[in-house]
Each structure stands twice: as structure tokens, then as C-alpha cells.
């Protein structure tokens, strides 16, 4: 049987979908090999959130063909969805597959000489989240579960609604069954993912919500640890915050997109909140869940961003108890409203502002990690390194290194933090 290699760029949704494609291909008898090995078919699951990720996709195509010039290169994902003709014309590309068509990857690969080189439908017409299904997960301790897809927000800078379509939710019973399924396989943690996770359930009949799903999982203790992905600030209601504060299974970790700390910039972005509202929500969250890990996205150099507006963003982040900062240098995406805006910021300025934000993020992360020296954390052991250290993940998203641990992985331990590391903390097992 043919050898297939898959490479994935971008978000956790793409990771989930690549895992599902891998599972489907394995069931059909394809031999799955690492991307840097010889393969008959290379599948590249792309991202298009920035021009940089488009370039990385093209680099992976060239890399695959260098490895095996006779291989079939199949390009799918968001870059393929929004620019199928451009991708089709790249040297060596055999097939371009849209996001909705990922569920048919087995049938598409079975056809060695397809009549159509581009199989990409109009995703804006997609109304169902049904598609790829995943019964198992390659990682042995944490599993990602997609419960929502698409986005209706259409922020002015964002290409994602054009790549992923309208917001649509996995049916409530199916989402809850997905959590149970992974728990039954022995996973200790399930990560709920979606493009616009806070919109989960709004399109269902009857309507539901992310909070309702979390409450149902909590009621039956469906899994020991349940982690929520990115949630918009205006969807972090008091009810959701209070539920998380009292939950025995939902991890104290939130990723909250900020994008800018200046109201004028937020308005041009089409974001539906102010800097003051964001500050208030984060304060409310930390008051209820003091040890929570809060990550934020921020865009540097949005069109028209002045030094003063950028300064407002820096000052807001400095005030907030942020543990991680994901910095996006603004990238002009054709087809978005921001691409047509006046006042496009010079690239050198964007790079300088991005670097300043990254340095700020590193300082904030270090300050957060230092808070836990001498304290105990519940850590899910995940892997062992060549240096003899075992590595795990705390409930509040800190990578924890543990020397001399020879016990089982996929076990939650109580660890006392002894020092910080460049990317997490190091600790000792209690007792």
C-alpha cells in the first residue's frame, strides 16, 4: 500500500483534522510515515492567517518534492480554500482539496489520475459541522475535540471566515459523546476546540451554549481534565467564569484574543468591545480564579496604528496578569476590509512593534511562572526526555519538568515547583 505523509500548519482545528485524516487513511491500509521520510503521497494541511504561513506552505511543497520528485503532493486547508487556483499553479501540486472536502480524503487519494485538479466547494454555503470524525488520538495523554467550526464575526483583518465558512456547531449529544469516547480510551485530558468556540451551540435546534456543554460534562465527570480553547472577551459571561471557578474538571486556562488595547484600533478592526471592557473581564476572571493562565493574541501594526495607539496596547498589557502573549505582525490579506484601508504601516515599524510586544510577553510569562515557585501543582505526566527528565502539563498550562521520575505517564501527580525554566517550571514530586 502507498506511503502517506501529512504535515500540519496552524491552529488546533487543523491538528484535529489532520489526526482524523491520518486515522481514515490508516483504516484504509495506507502506510503513514513522517513527513521527512520518503512517501508516495504528501498531504500538506495549510494555514493562511498570515502571508508567512502561506510562504511556509509553499516551502513544504518544495521540501516534499525534493524528498521524492515523483510523489503526489496534495494541498488542503485554509490556503487551499481561499486561493485554490494559485495553489494549483504551484510547481508539483497534484491536487487541491478544500476544507469541506477533507472528509473525502480517502476517496480523493484513491483516484490516482483525477479529472479535476481542484476540489474546493463554496464553504460559505456549508451549514453543518459534520465531517471529519476522530476515534483516537496519536498523543497518549491529551486529545483535541472539535466541537465548532467557522466564524460569523468578519473582523476586518481576518481571512478565517472566508476559509472556514459560517459558524456551525457539532450537535450537543455528539460533542458530549466525543468527550466520553476519549475518556474511555484512557485520555486524562480533552481540549475543546473551535474557530469561534464561544459561539458553540447558538446555531443548534434547540439552541445551546459552551456553558451548557461544560455543565453536562461536569455533571457526569466525563473526563478528569477538560480544557477550553480560545474564547472571545464578550463571550466570557459571569455565569461561565463562575462555573469555571467552581469546576472540578475544567482547567484554569483561557486564551482571550485582545488584538489591540486601543479603542480606535479595535473599532477599525471590527472588534466588539473596548479596552476598558477587556480589562474588566480579565479582572473579573482573575478575582474568581486567581491562578488562571491567561493567554492573549495581539496584532502589531494594524492599518493606521499610531505610536500613541500602539502605546495604549502596551500599557494595557503591562497592567494585565497575562501569562502568554501571541504576537501577530499585521499581515495584509487580500479580500479583507483591512487590506483596503489607508495608512498601511511600514514593515520596519511592524517588526519593531512586534519585537517589543514579544519581549513584553516574555517578561509577563516569566513573572507568572515565578509566582508558583514553592507551590504545588497538579501535573499530568506526558513524556520523558533524553536528559532523563519527565515532562508534564499543569492544570493551569505550565510545562513542568520532573527529574528522576520513573513512574507511569498519563498520571496526574502533585508536584512542588522548585524553579522556573525558559519555557515552564521544574519541580519535585511530593512525598
Automatic annotation (TrEMBL):
Highest taxon in the source lineage: Bacteria
Domain MTTase N-terminal: 2-114
Annotated catalysed reactions: N(6)-L-threonylcarbamoyladenosine(37) in tRNA + (sulfur carrier)-SH + AH2 + 2 S-adenosyl-L-methionine = 2-methylsulfanyl-N(6)-L-threonylcarbamoyladenosine(37) in tRNA + (sulfur carrier)-H + 5'-deoxyadenosine + L-methionine + A + S-adenosyl-L-homocysteine + 2 H(+)
Key words, A-Z: 4Fe-4S, Cytoplasm, Iron, Iron-sulfur, Metal-binding, S-adenosyl-L-methionine, Transferase, tRNA processing
Cofactor: [4Fe-4S] cluster
Pfam families for this protein: Radical_SAM, UPF0004
PROSITE patterns reported for this sequence: MTTASE_N, MTTASE_RADICAL, RADICAL_SAM, TRAM
EC number: 2.8.4.5
InterPro entries: Elp3/MiaA/NifB-like_rSAM (IPR006638), Methylthiotransferase (IPR005839), Methylthiotransferase_CS (IPR020612), Methylthiotransferase_N (IPR013848), Methylthiotransferase_N_sf (IPR038135), MiaB-like_bact (IPR006467), rSAM (IPR007197), rSAM_horseshoe (IPR023404)
GO molecular function, one term: metal ion binding
Annotated ranges, domain TRAM: 370-431
Gene3D superfamilies linked to this entry: Methylthiotransferase, N-terminal domain (3.40.50.12160), tm_1862 like domain (3.80.30.20)
Domain Radical SAM core: start-end pairs: 137-367
Chain's role: Catalyzes the methylthiolation of N6-threonylcarbamoyladenosine (t(6)A), leading to the formation of 2-methylthio-N6-threonylcarbamoyladenosine (ms(2)t(6)A) at position 37 in tRNAs that read codons beginning with adenine.
Assigned protein family: Belongs to the methylthiotransferase family. MtaB subfamily.
Listed name of the protein: Threonylcarbamoyladenosine tRNA methylthiotransferase MtaB
Organismal lineage: Bacteria, Pseudomonadati, Thermodesulfobacteriota, Desulfuromonadia, Geobacterales
Protein encoded by which gene: mtaB
Amino acid at each position: 500500500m502507498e506511503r502517506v505523509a501529512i504535515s500540519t500548519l496552524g491552529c488546533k482545528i487543523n491538528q484535529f483534522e489532520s489526526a482524523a485524516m491520518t486515522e481514515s487513511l490508516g483504516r484504509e491500509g495506507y502506510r503513514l510515515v513522517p513527513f521527512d521520510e520518503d512517501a508516495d503521497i504528501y498531504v500538506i494541511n495549510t494555514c493562511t492567517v498570515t502571508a508567512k504561513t502561506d510562504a511556509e506552505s509553499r516551502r513544504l511543497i518544495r521540501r516534499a518534492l525534493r524528498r521524492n520528485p515523483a510523489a503526489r503532493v496534495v494541498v488542503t486547508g485554509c490556503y487551499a480554500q481561499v486561493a485554490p487556483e494559485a495553489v494549483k499553479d504551484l510547481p508539483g501540486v497534484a491536487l487541491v482539496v478544500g476544507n469541506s472536502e477533507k472528509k473525502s480524503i480517502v476517496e480523493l487519494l484513491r483516484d490516482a489520475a483525477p479529472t479535476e485538479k481542484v476540489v474546493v466547494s463554496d464553504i460559505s454555503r456549508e451549514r453543518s459541522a459534520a465531517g471529519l470524525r476522530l476515534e483516537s488520538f496519536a498523543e497518549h495523554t491529551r486529545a483535541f475535540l472539535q466541537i465548532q467550526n467557522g466564524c460569523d464575526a468578519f473582523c476586518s483583518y481576518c481571512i478565517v471566515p472566508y476559509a472556514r465558512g459560517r459558524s456551525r456547531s457539532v450537535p450537543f449529544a455528539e460533542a458530549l459523546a466525543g468527550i466520553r469516547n476519549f475518556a474511555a480510551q484512557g485520555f486524562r485530558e480533552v481540549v475543546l476546540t473551535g474557530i469561534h468556540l464561544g459561539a458553540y451551540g447558538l446555531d443548534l435546534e434547540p439552541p445551546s451554549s459552551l456553558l451548557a456543554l461544560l455543565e453536562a460534562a461536569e455533571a457526569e465527570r466525563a473526563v478528569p481534565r477538560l480544557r477550553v480553547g480560545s474564547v472571545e472577551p464578550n463571550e466570557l459571561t459571569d455565569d461561565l467564569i463562575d462555573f469555571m471557578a467552581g469546576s472540578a474538571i475544567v482547567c484554569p486556562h483561557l486564551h482571550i484574543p485582545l488584538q489591540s488595547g486601543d479603542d480606535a484600533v479595535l473599532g477599525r478592526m471590527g472588534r466588539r468591545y473596548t479596552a476598558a471592557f477587556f480589562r474588566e473581564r480579565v479582572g473579573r476572571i482573575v478575582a474568581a480564579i486567581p491562578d488562571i493562565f491567561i493567554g492573549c493574541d495581539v496584532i502589531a501594526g494594524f492599518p493606521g496604528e499610531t505610536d500613541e495607539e500602539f502605546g495604549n496596547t502596551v500599557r494595557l498589557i503591562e497592567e494585565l496578569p497575562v501569562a502568554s502573549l501571541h504576537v501577530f505582525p499585521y499581515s495584509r490579506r487580500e479580500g479583507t476590509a483591512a487590506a483596503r484601508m489607508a495608512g498601511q504601516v511600514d514593515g520596519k515599524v511592524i517588526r519593531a512593534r512586534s519585537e517589543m510586544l514579544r519581549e513584553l510577553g516574555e517578561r509577563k510569562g516569566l513573572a507568572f511562572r515565578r509566582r508558583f515557585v514553592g507551590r504545588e501543582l497538579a501535573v499530568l505526566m506526558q513524556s520523558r526526555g533524553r536528559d532523563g527528565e519527565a515532562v508534564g502539563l499543569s492544570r493551569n498550562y505550565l510545562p513542568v519538568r520532573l527529574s528522576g521520575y520513573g513512574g507511569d505517564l498519563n498520571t496526574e501527580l502533585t508536584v512542588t515547583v522548585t524553579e522556573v525554566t525558559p519555557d515552564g517550571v521544574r519541580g519535585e514530586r511530593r512525598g
